[in-house]
Design brief:
homodimer; three-stranded mixed sheet
Amino acid sequence: MELLEKFKQQTFKIKAYNYALNVVGWDSATEAPRNAFQRRSEMMGVLSGELFQLNTSKESQEVVYGLFERLEELSDLDKKQVIKAKKGLDKIIKIPQDEFVEYNKLVGLSQRLWEDAKENNDFELFRPNLEKLIDFNKKFVSYYEIDDHPYNVLLDDYEEGMSMKEYDAFFDTLKRDLVPFVKDVLNSGKVLNDAFALDSFDKAKQKEFCDYLIDVLAFDRNSGVMKESVHPFTWNTHPGDVRFTTRYLENMVFSSIFAAIHELGHATYEQQIDNALNDTILGGGSSMGLHESQSRFYENIVGRSLEFWEVHYPKMLELFPEQLKNVSLDDFYRATNKVEASLIRVEADELTYPLHIMLRYEIERMLMSDEVEVKDLPKLWNSKIVEYLGIEPKNDAEGVLQDVHWSAGLLGYFPTYALGSAYAAQFYYAMKKEINVEQLIKENKISEINAWLKDKIHQYGQSKTPKELLLDVTGEPFDAKYYVQYLKEKYGKLYL
Amino acid sequence: MELLEKFKQQTFKIKAYNYALNVVGWDSATEAPRNAFQRRSEMMGVLSGELFQLNTSKESQEVVYGLFERLEELSDLDKKQVIKAKKGLDKIIKIPQDEFVEYNKLVGLSQRLWEDAKENNDFELFRPNLEKLIDFNKKFVSYYEIDDHPYNVLLDDYEEGMSMKEYDAFFDTLKRDLVPFVKDVLNSGKVLNDAFALDSFDKAKQKEFCDYLIDVLAFDRNSGVMKESVHPFTWNTHPGDVRFTTRYLENMVFSSIFAAIHELGHATYEQQIDNALNDTILGGGSSMGLHESQSRFYENIVGRSLEFWEVHYPKMLELFPEQLKNVSLDDFYRATNKVEASLIRVEADELTYPLHIMLRYEIERMLMSDEVEVKDLPKLWNSKIVEYLGIEPKNDAEGVLQDVHWSAGLLGYFPTYALGSAYAAQFYYAMKKEINVEQLIKENKISEINAWLKDKIHQYGQSKTPKELLLDVTGEPFDAKYYVQYLKEKYGKLYL
């Protein structure tokens, strides 16, 4: 079919533009000097414009809508591609190109500005850009002419099929079944000592340990890179080039380690996707939530297990004999799972983490419903964190300015983090029925866990939706009860 | 004028594509994992094709040739742009797009292959690609339909106005006036001891010293980055983002230091170009030779001077007290200027360096005249190096495979290196008439030398040709006698 051939050529060309934009993005986030940014923003504006034009050209529309009318003639994979392309196109063609270009420039500048604002605890510095970013998002949603709440439209962008209704239900379950449990843990009077972890840990040696973790998690070094950035993230163009970052804080050794394991989870997912999906638009992880389920699985279920540290604590002792001389394996393991009310989401423990997400979800919901103005966010943030965790930020850097997401225009993304943890627990119980997870961790055979995940989840990329994957892998639809069960089992043992 | 406005828009768009391709290039050379390359090459092929189309579109031709007919109506700067654009277009429109795309892919793959070939001393691994690269170059030249020797066409590409005739004359001067002098030095019986420099120098500390040099040479850290790569190079997109690399060899401490100073010379040139030239096609250094004159000036005239080490040797002593405990300042200075017959161009001393270039010039000349086949290059190379320096490579890695240039399709580039050194000497004698160069180095005020070079040379970018710059700065045309004079003065003192 000629139309299909055109679609594939078009896809290949679009991929080339995205490739270049992605590499420039990686460069900006990890390397480019300060004075590069103004010019980079101008240049990327031009290329984003070109890409927009490619995506929305009359020819592209003819191809996509033409194929959509002949779906029944297509293979299953092509059908999925066309449906996805059509959904994207429906949205994108309604945005005027000049606004799209302007928005991309704004995002480029805002991320740098956010860094400065965070560094200087100066929300006002970032505020005008955040307002513009939100206005753009609202305006774009209005262009789509979808008859739904604007926030629902954004939520669906990051996790297909999820809306405020589903998320409300999810967070309600957590509130009902988990929040009382968290309260019990926080009030248990049992305090795990992790003072040693705030000792001074040489950054170069932390880096050495993170480098060691690359092999522990059986990440393919020939298809990846580890680097450092302010906010850890994973980046990829295709399974042969998957990169991740961590960050080294001298007095918070757990920060670099668990950020590395978390990002290695994302990165392993990307490395294990079937190469055949490379030239389709179905490469990459199935959804944000699915992606987060993998990073959280490796970070929390693997990386914070006793079995994991049974094997790898000796390496830590080798690198940090002084700092750990009075710390037993059990002390260390417990410290990695210490629960406490804390301010910074990315440093939060596994148990209180969903409360941080709930806060962001509620704020975004209000922003998108015009129930709060940007200028009032610092106050709102602080009052909510007091309400949920009983503690108050000293400044906006540890409050409303802590996350990179909004500066990148990502609204509706946060809730997928909590959803991901819940997915992870459900997958974990399915995995346990087939392989002895704890034993494999203990034997330093994580590659076999990777293989199970590749077989069941990773290889499929976006050719299966989250709903399909949950059903195929676990035999039932998503159910938050596994998440609650997992947390209660683990933290019940540790604290109650 | 509407045509001029179109030209400027077109230029801006082309710059955006080049920007992205450049960033991807930097990424490939310094960071991308091994398995990234195949895909990168495909993606860059698409974008190079797009760029080629932009450059050669009917609209672009109308604009450039249209403006060329109305040169007298243009400002001086616009006139220069149009003449340059027309010259480029004359060449490029004659190359079929598919060949251009294929060539760019080939270059991408060849650089990786060259690295492998060099690592494994395996010329045969690289040979088929080198043959293809040379064939492409010949074919492209034939498309230009310029009535001249193919090598002349390439030589002119890298240094406008230079041909075999000029280079033959230049190298003849060196042969007549310099070669006997080099022989005297090599036969002087005076051996400068630099054994200490082959001791083990911790790479992290070498890096610390190179980082220190960034400030010594007053390089703007907010507009630049230093990194590591197999072959040191300088990279830039505009004066706000100029990057350079060096390489650290544990047993060759001079290698990282002088590569860093050399690249800092290139990088300082780029940082000091007038920002107003950014949106024109006259940004960047005036020519390859001019660029090399700056890197060689900083590396040899500044960096290998006694005055330089009077100020900075204490820092070396601080970092390497053990290795340098029996080395006086004078020993150290002399060791940085040790003359010897050696195999590796980038490690060659200042005096024998032009012989390495002469060899490459002669080989390229033969290749482009079909006087030698690629398969015979290793033999030819080895026989010539024996002839000029009396030593023979143990393997091709230290012979014909040592340089990156041919793998990047750069033929006709090498001779600009020797020309650059000669330019540098002529500029140096002009500079000495106006500022006390040695005193400024001694007082660690290199920023004042930078300022002189910015004022006389750097700011102009490509808005002045090499010939114009030589005349304006030194009051006379290029004359190789200054180069010979400089070398004889310096090495006469050291050796005779």
